Amino acid sequence: MNSGAGVKRPAEGHPGQYVPRKRPPGDDDDFVEEDFELEPPEEEEEFGPDMEVDEGSLGEAGKNWPRPAAPELNPATDKLVFQQLEVDYTLAAPHATYYPTDLREVPVVRMYGVTEGGSSVSAFVHGFEPYFYVEAPSPSFSPDDCQALAGELNAELGPKDKKNPRQVLRVELARKQTMMFYQPAKDRLFLKIVLATPNLVSTCRGLFERGLCLRWLNNQYFRSTTYESNVLYALRFMIDCSVVGGNWVELPAGSYTLVPAQSHQTHCQLEAHLHYSRLISHAPEGEWAKMAPFRILSVDIECQGRKGHFPEPDKDPVIQIASLVTEFGQKGPTVRNIMTLKSCAPITGAEVMSFEDERELLLRWRDLVLEADPDIIIGYNIVNFDLPYLLNRADTLKIPQFWTWGRIRNRRCKMRDARFSSKAYGTHDFKEIAIDGRVQFDLLQAIQRDHKLSSYSLNSVSAHFLGEQKEDVHHSDISKLQDGNAESRRRLAIYCLKDAYLPQRLVDKLMYMYNYIEMARVTGVPMSYLLSRGQSIKVFSQILRKSRTKNLLVPNMKRGGDPNEGVAYEGATVLEPKAGYYDKPVATLDFASLYPSIMMAHNLCYTTLVPKGQEKHFPKEHLTISPNGDAFVKSSLATGVLPEILQELLGARKRARKDMGEATDPFLKAVYNGRQLALKVSANSVYGFTGATVGALPCLEISSSVTSFGREMIMETRKRVMERYCKANGYSHDADVIYGDTDSVMVYFGVEDTATAMQLGLEAAEEVSKAFIKPIKLEFEKVYNPYLLISKKRYAGLLWTKPEKWDKIDTKGIETVRRDNCLLVRNVVTTCLEKILVERAPGEAAEYVKGVISDLLMNKLDLSLLVISKGLTQDADEYENKAAHVELAKKMKKRDPATAPTVGDRVPYVIVKAAKGAKAYEKAEDPIYALRNNLPIDCQHYLDHHLAQPLMRLFEPILKNPKELLTGAHTRSITVTTPSAASGGIMKFAQKRLTCLGCRAMLGAGETTVCKHCKEKEGEIYQRCVLGVNDLEAQFSALWTQCQRCQGSLHQDVLCRSRDCPIFYRRMKVQKELGEAQTTLQRFDEW
Q1: Looking at the DSSP assignment, which residues form a beta bridge with residue 88?
Q2: Residue 821, CA atoms < 13 Å, CB-side half-sphere
Q3: 60 domain-assigned
Q4: What are the boundaries of the region Disordered (predicted)?
Q5: Residue 39 placed within a domain
Q6: d(Cα 70, Cα 571) in Å, to the nearest integer?
Q7: How many domains does the chain have?
Q8: What does 342-353 look like in DSSP terms, one character per residue?
Q9: pLDDT at 980
Q10: 1060-1063: long-range contacts at Cβ-Cβ below 8 A with a sequence spacing of 24 or more?
């Protein structure tokens, strides 16, 4: 074990000639605010010499933290090539060599990345000026007019920017076309407004959109739509320099200068400066599809909360920080470190560092980040908990230098509250933390976006994807372990290390680094945008890139404030389902990439849209009129930007899938798979972008035309299939389209075997495809046999892609993953589906349901099956409406504040019996409390409010009278447990008397085990009790050992309180039953 105390920390940096300034807030927003005034830049914080030490002199404790030494480079003869992972900018004094100017403050692009050899790089790119466009006031606008306009704009903007002598650097004439509506080939005159700093773009844009007076043109009033004035500066740079997220860039020999190590402004190993025009960007194809060995830091922290309170950074200390550093592409971490407050026993395979002072612990961890120099920081819920907690805790302890663990020396991280809102992902509040040069990747956010699960706790997610669980120590137990000894803190450290290890395992298992880097490459945005922003910015980036190649300008459209407002349009067609249980094959025909195909086939785009009323000026053969009446020119006149983008995306996806099939290197195969998935998602996002009324470029004419063509195609497919495949044409049955949903139709051919249905499906797809314009293509993909069609958006079937063997049970809209369902519902529905679909025994499924209902009413089911779990998102007293989990949280707080749920916890509960007419929220109870006090479960509530509706939906297409499942002989026997006196109510006044262990009759005076009538059987009864205790002991031992294995030690008590784990409830139940059985056995002591 290494002691962390007293070890020197790395130097905070040395002053150099290039001095970055604070980047003003607001420029990270998707769309820059109007009339944004520059704030005065803050002075860089300097920390005293007591905090400065030589880097690398970390002693034995941190010898494996730093990267390998960077190679010596000669800028005159050696090129510098690296994979960039983050692009941002700062405001700084201009560089004398690469951007000589009289301005005092200019934007400088910063690119961070890694070389193929693993060296970290920061490249400062100079000379790229922010700009936007407006349409010229007249076709005769001259260079002299441009100079006069620049003067007028400077007069307006000067008072808002005291830094620079000029705000508008120049106004240039440009021949361009607007992207909106079909335009003849003739270019129009535009003005390119070039500005000193990016933040002036929004202010200057406001001047044009509100209107300004052109005094030198007889006071002409000029008001104009602006073009590309809502493009983020860093993204503008990437587009103009053909840089895409996560690609390789090259600084050619002779084009850059390297900064000596002693003058570095960053913590990167290599630091270079160059002019933007000399930067070479490599398309991520062929040899440039590779990945650099970038470093990933996985972090988890533990805090010691006060009794009855969730940890708060202004009051509760950070007691442990686990850090795992992994090089991408390598198996296992290169650094496995745990820092603890107070002593900790050694841990095999981990570097343990103990501190007596929390300030030292935090600063030492900051040293680890600076020395290890990670490119990406990952963890589970780090954005909303771990990282903000560390930063806020450092403020409480007055350690300003702790905030400097970004890559810019002496530069504090920035943190603010933010809200992410997207139609696809909903609205979420989160902390936005800017850590210069380091990408944050929160696994919780990524998994919530990409996967629909019943629970998103790290334990549940790990069980789902990795097939393993971890010990779940409740925050109320952490204090006991911390206040114990070195061994108890070791146990907490192992728990903390595992919480840092599991996110790395999940990243590897789900291929997140491959997939997200490929998504950044395909869409052209920095990797950091992918989690913090929605789909729109990705499509917008692609549109800007393609428009630039076609000399088109993208207008800045006014956006509404409410996504629910605006013009509504009819969505996709859903054919009325013919509900039923189909025990013969049902073929599914799907349109391949339906919406992208429609847009390509009919040339639907902003650039091909004909304004209303202008259709008469075009020959009919040159127009496509959509079913909802909008007109677009055909590709014979002009190919749209969107169809071209889609054609390139889908063509690239086809190539990526081909390359994936041919690749032999698993590393490269994963890259190609990530790429083809990213291309697919990007193509499907383009349609949604046009229909987003609050997006960057809404166009409902396009989105509504797409859905109208889709509806027409579904109806045409139905018609053609039913006309062709009928008895009149020699087929054995009349085919029937039993359901159609957006881009697919389900066809019941009436044939007996799966192979024949597949053959007919293939044939039907080929025949129907002939009726549509290319590239629209109907494909046969699968057969369901059997198929249970319940209603719109609700069905289940046994899916076959090969006639020899079925693949899986495929469901949609069935209650198997909803979080607010108890496990009983999920288990029953899943088992019924297996019996109906796999075993083809609907009758057995019905009998199974009756058996489960009988067991439920007779109280024979495991308590874990009845637990419902909901999250406490705010303080219980702040909820306006009464909810079961909220009222229970209040109740539990009165009983024991130390263990009561707090904000952020999930509250598990069961519904217990209560007075007649009691509301559901009044009947919610803690499962463990109900178990210990024998509180009777309200089984009828579970039957009526949880099981009944899913079972009715499932069996309605199968049984003539599905309600018979809920009534009848199997529902007449009900068992109710007798509550204990501790449960309150009338039981407080009940007197406890012993009963005979044989016949349950009341025992008389002097009798302790059996009555006089059962005396002859006392030995047999005793033997039965002994066997019962032995059986329960074996059960408890097995469950206990299972939990010990999960926690990683067979020699320590189990502290896990994972309410997501059914074993937890079984263990508690068996423990209680064992205690009662042992008490019963003790009655024989005097026998």
Answers
A1: 110
A2: 21
A3: no
A4: 1-63
A5: no
A6: 57
A7: 5
A8: S-----TTSEEE
A9: 57
A10: 1060/455, 1060/457, 1060/459, 1060/460, 1060/472, 1060/869, 1060/906, 1061/459, 1061/469, 1061/472, 1062/823, 1062/862, 1062/864, 1062/865, 1063/1039
- CATH number of the domain within which 442 lies: 3.30.420.10
Report how far residue 444's alpha carbon sits from residue 890's, in angstroms, rounded to the nearest whole number: 28
- What's the confidence (pLDDT) of residue 990? 64
What one-letter code names the amino acid at 40? P
Residues 892 and 922 in one domain: yes
At residue 45, the pLDDT reads 41
492 and 585 in a single domain? The answer is no
What single-letter amino acid sits at 20? P
Based on the fold, state whether residues 698 and 799 are members of the same structural domain. yes
CATH, residue 850: 1.10.132.60
pLDDT on residue 43: 38
pLDDT at 90: 94
DSSP 527: T
Could you tell me the strand order of the sheet in which 439-442 lies? 2-3, 351-355, 335-341, 318-327, 295-303, 376-379, 439-442
Q: What are the average pLDDT values for consecutive 10-residue runs of the chain, which has 1087 residues? A: 45 37 37 34 38 42 87 96 96 95 96 97 98 95 95 91 91 94 87 96 93 88 93 97 97 97 95 98 93 96 83 93 94 93 94 95 96 96 93 95 93 80 55 91 89 82 84 75 91 92 93 90 92 84 94 83 46 78 94 92 95 88 92 92 92 87 81 84 88 81 92 93 93 92 90 94 94 93 93 91 92 71 89 94 94 91 87 77 88 80 80 87 89 88 91 90 87 66 56 82 82 86 89 84 70 66 78 85 76
Dihedral sign computed on CA atoms, order 377, 383, 385, 387: positive
* Count of beta carbons in the 10 Å neighbourhood of residue 869: 22
Last residue of a domain, one of 942, 971, 1000: 971
User: Are residue 99 and residue 216 in the same domain, yes or no?
Assistant: yes
| Inside any domain, residue 664 | yes
Is residue 966 a contact partner of residue 951, using CB atoms and an 8 Å limit? yes
Q: How far is CA 1083 from the centre of its chain?
A: 58
Kindly report the CA angle at 499 between 498 and 504, in degrees rounded to 5?
A: 85
**Core vs surface per residue 237-263: b (16+ CB within 10 A) or e:** bbbebbbbbbbbbbbeeebbebbeeee
Q: Indicate whether 777 and 820 sit together in one domain.
A: no
Under a CB-based contact definition with an 8 Å cutoff, are residues 942 and 920 in contact? no
- Residue 749 shares a structural domain with residue 847: no
Same domain, 487 and 392: yes
Q: What confidence score (pLDDT) does residue 61 get?
A: 67
Q: Strand 439-442 to strand 376-379: parallel, antiparallel, or no bridges (unpaired)?
A: parallel
Among 455, 479, 510, the domain boundary falls at: 510
CB 60 within 8 A of CB 79: no
Q: Is the pTM of this model over 0.85?
A: no
The CA distance from 898 to 739, in Å, is 55
Range of the domain at 924: 814-971
The whole-number pLDDT of residue 1057 equals: 67
Residues 6+ apart with CB under 8 A from 216: 145, 148, 152
Greatest Cα pair distance in the chain: 121
Q: How many whole angstroms from its chain centre is CA 585?
A: 37
Specify if 987 maps to a domain.
Answer: no
Residues 6 or more apart from 393 whose CB is under 8 A from it? Answer: 313, 317, 318, 358, 362
Which of 526, 595, 697, 596 lies closest to 178, judged by CA? 697
Kindly report each contact of residues 151-158 with a partner whose C-beta sits within 8 Å and lies 24 or more positions away, as own/partner. Answer: 152/212, 152/214, 152/215, 152/216, 153/193, 153/204, 153/207, 156/207, 156/212, 157/200, 157/203, 157/204, 157/207
Smallest CA-to-CA distance from 885 within 896, 897, 901 is with 901
Q: What is the pLDDT of residue 419?
A: 62
- The Cα–Cα gap between 409 and 259 comes to 14
Residues 644 and 717 grouped into a single domain: yes
Q: What is the pLDDT of residue 983?
A: 52
